[in-house]
Amino acid sequence: MRITSRQSFILRKLVEGHQELANPVGSKWLSDRDDVPWGPSTVRAELARLEEFGLLHHPHTSAGRVPTDSGYRHYVDELLVEDDLPVPRKPLELTAMQREVEDAMRATTEQLSQVTNLLALVSAPPIDTAVIHRVEVLRLQPQVAMVVVITSTGGVTKRIVSYEAPLDPGLVDWAASYLNETLGGMEVGARLLAAKLSDPELGRHERDFLATLTPAFTDLEDTAGDTLFVDGTARLLDEQRFQELPQLSDLMDVLERRVALLSLLRASLSEPSVYLRIGAENAAPELRSVSMVAANYGVARRNLGAVGVLGPMRMDYPLAVAAVRQAAGELSRFVSEVYER
After folding, report:
1. Last residue of a domain, one of 54, 82, 110
2. What ranges make up the beta strands (E) of the chain?
3. Which residues lie below 8 Å from residue 12, measured CB to CB, with a gap of 6+?
4. Contact 31, 14 (CB under 8 A)
5. Spatial separation of the C-alpha atoms in residues 338 and 172, rounded to whole Å
6. What CA–CA distance (Å, rounded) separates 210 from 296?
7. What is the pLDDT of residues 139-195, one digit of tens each?
8. Higher-scoring residue by pLDDT: 195, 329
9. Are residues 220 and 232 in the same domain?
10. Number of domains in the chain
11. Which of 21, 42, 171, 198 is geometrically suited to a Cys-Cys bond with 38, CB 3.0 to 4.6 A?
12. What is the pTM of this model?
């Protein structure tokens, strides 16, 4: 299928008109636009051709037309080629107020949802990309100690250990100093981590005590899991959008299952630019009445997570793409600074 530049222009105006009106768009409305130089009969003929190509369809008996999934896809592909995207009216900014990655991701979802009026999603970096930032070993009671592990992403893990005999305060202080010196800056998933905790050059008394603290470090990957930040569910399910979401109950089920949403965002990690799935392009049947726009963020040569929005197919794609790209870029800047601390 090869459409002319005139047909492509008319398709674009129709998509934008449908986004604005929330109703089927007719030839008269299109021809009345100041930047459309053709009369109703010419526009009507081109709309008929676009319908033959499968890019438009008549809903019910309406005289107007709406884009099909393929129509939206053609429109978005042209948009990305031209790269003529708007600047969001309220640019997303992460300031010094967000001291940790978790705070930054929560702020990103809130601001992205406000800017786009869509459901915003951000996946957290996997725990094995974090490094150990600080370790604290505390003597809570004569026979009880607590070890606290703080990672570069702001994650905090605590573990309490009980002993049969009273603890030597000097041994507790030594352990805190040794762990910070030895493990500080080491990746959570590093293979050397366990070896450092059982260094044969240490005395037996010190090794035995470190062995009781070891699970606080070796279990970090198992206990962390994947984290997803979501904001804007109420915006997605606004009553004015109900008719555009025919699979509402199925969609609600997906929104409640974070694993399903995480798998969607993971799929975008391999995309070099923007990840876009429109309607039937979504593998999950319950998502075939919505579109998803996402982009990955991370540090040099490594993607850590993804930022995305989910909304009806009649969304403002230029704004969604621009806002998601901006959010991903801002998060990349933020995590790069955090990981280099």
Report:
1. 82
2. 56-57, 66-67, 119-123, 132-141, 144-151, 156-162, 228-231, 275-278, 290-299, 302-312
3. 75, 78
4. no
5. 29
6. 39
7. 999 999 999 988 766 667 788 999 999 999 999 999 999 999 988 887 776 567 777
8. 329
9. no
10. 3
11. 42
12. 0.73
Q: At what angle do helices 258-267 and 248-256 cross, to 10 degrees?
A: 90
Q: Are residues 215 and 319 in the same domain?
A: no
What are 17-75's pLDDT values in tens digits?
A: 999 888 899 999 999 999 999 999 999 999 999 999 999 998 876 679 999 999 999 99
81: exposed, middle or buried (Cβ count in 10 Å: 0-12, 13-18, 19+): exposed
- How far is it, in rounded angstroms, from Cα 175 to Cα 45? 80
CATH number where 76 lies? 1.10.10.10
Residue where one domain finishes, among candidates 224, 253, 270: 224
How much is the pLDDT for 218? Answer: 73
The verdict on residue 95 lying in a domain is: no
Cβ(92)–Cβ(119) below 8 Å:
no
Q: Is 204 exposed, middle or buried (0-12, 13-18, 19+ CB in 10 A)?
A: exposed
* Residue 168 CB neighbours (<10 A): 12
- Token pair of 168 as six digits: 């030597």
